[in-house]
What does this fold into?
Amino acid sequence: EVQLVESGGDLVQPGGSLRLSCAASGFTFTIYSISWFRQAPGMGLEWISYISHTGDTKYYADSVKGRFTVSRDNAENSLYLQMNGLRDEDTAVYYCARDRGHCTGGSCFRYHDSWGQGTLVTVSS
Amino acid sequence: DIQMTQSPSTLSASVGDRVTITCRASQSISSWLAWYQQKPGTAPKLLIYQASSLESGVPSRFSGSGSGTEFTLTISSLQPDDFATYYCQQYNSYPYTFGQGTKLEIK
It folds into this structure.
């Protein structure tokens, strides 16, 4: 069974840092790219980051670029999201999700077939 | 960025009804569209990918259609378990973007 389990969410003051983890099991982690999403309380879903299966390629939403860093440890089947310079508006449930899709004509198109249960990050003084 | 607009924002329906949710993209996304279902306090669940392909394990009463900029999600006969919020998402280009969601309520 495919499983993704996020951890590391906490209450942090504005300007602070936090590192989220996403532990994967039940599939060959090394061949899948992974994405991070978040959902502010009572709001919709927001894509925030992508990391390729090797970790060589990373993308970020403008809202987190320069503050958040995604990484992975394929030996440990784990994914990380280092969040620095946290702001009130970063308060949300953060999800990791496995990417699936295909590449054609030099472009790749990825949807997200398995999601973790989420971890809550609260930024407040 | 590609803007995704869903309608309606809220939909009241009864068990057994046929319902349709619409999603419009601000520019063509070919068929690179997914639909997700989310229940309160839980993670999103993939229903449909590539506009019309049903994810494994998802009941056949769910169907998707469309291409370019207009897409629909149809539930042919609502079941009690279907009352939830539904999101469309474009994965044509980064940043991937979602519609604002459609909350399906019991009438």
Notes: The first strand of chain A starts at residue 3 and ends at 7.
